[in-house]
Design a protein that fits this description.
Blueprint lengths: L1 E7 L6 H13 L4 E6 L14 H12 L5 E3 L12 H11 L4 E7 H4 L8 H7 L1 E5 L6 H13 L4 E4 L8 H9 L10 H10 L9
Parallel strand pairs: 1-2, 1-4, 2-3, 4-5, 5-6
Helix pairs in contact: 2-8, 3-5
Bound molecules: adenosine-5'-triphosphate (ATP).
Length: 203
């Protein structure tokens, strides 16, 4: 089975994440994709981070309509910092016949050699990237070539990026602006219902 691994803070999950996930499912002919909220993100500060339970539930609501997506709590259940290499080792143990494709945006791709045990990571999965900002494709392909010399297997996928970030969603909420065009309806409903990120329930 060809399995995509899509990890992120998902604080909150937004339409850019969905676009990325669906583009990869099709472009790489994946059989399924695991969506994995991280416990403590090693690459960024944890300011404004809502609970793992809330991020997991928002991911469930975002991806529930398509059975090819499996939202997983594998990293939330593990103590301490969540390193991708540990997750991949665990998944290899659970699904030894699967071929794993690690999905990421370009911002993460350019930091890959700073990741914990990156050489092992390159053995465990194919590194898959799509451009997050327009016109990055040439740089991505050059960088992929450099990583391949270090042992990585890379796939650069054409992605028409949706220019939205979780930071932007949180900022809109803080400013009292409408987020219905930025996140799936189930996620917008959950944010209001639980009053996440300082949102005010209109009821
Ligand atoms: P924040 O704004 O809080 O930094 P984020 O929007 O970057 O969050 P993450 O959960 O950190 O979201 O992202 C998870 C993965 O999704 C990363 O690999 C990131 O590059 C990718 N990603 C996020 N937003 C987009 C987007 N609009 N287009 C393509 N990839 C994206």
């Amino acid at each position: 089975m060809r399995t995509g691994i899509f990890g992120g803070t998902f604080n909150p999950v937004h339409n850019g994440h969905l676009k990325l996930a669906y583009t990869y499912l099709d472009a790489l002919a994946l059989d399924r994709m695991l969506v994995i909220p991280t416990r403590i993100p090693p690459h960024k500060k944890a300011d404004h981070l809502v609970s793992g339970e809330d991020r997991l539930e928002m991911c469930r609501r975002a991806f529930e309509s398509d059975r090819r997506f499996w939202v997983s709590d594998i990293e939330l259940c593990r103590e301490g910092k969540s390193y991708t290499v540990n997750t991949l080792e665990e998944l290899h143990g659970r699904f030894p016949d699967d071929e794993f494709y690690l999905i990421m945006g370009s911002d993460m791709f350019f930091t890959l050699t700073e990741w914990f045990h990156w050489q092992r990571l390159f053995e465990l999965a194919v590194m898959c990237v799509g451009e997050r900002e327009p016109d990055l494709n040439v740089r991505l392909r050059e960088y992929a070539g450099r990583l391949e010399k270090l042992g990585a297997r890379c796939r650069v996928v054409d992605l028409k990026p949706v220019e939205v970030s979780s930071t932007q969603v949180r900022q809109c909420i803080a400013d009292g602006k409408d987020i219905s065009g930025l996140v799936p309806p189930g996620v917008a409903g959950y944010i209001l219902e639980k009053r996440l990120y300082g949102s005010k329930n209109p009821q």
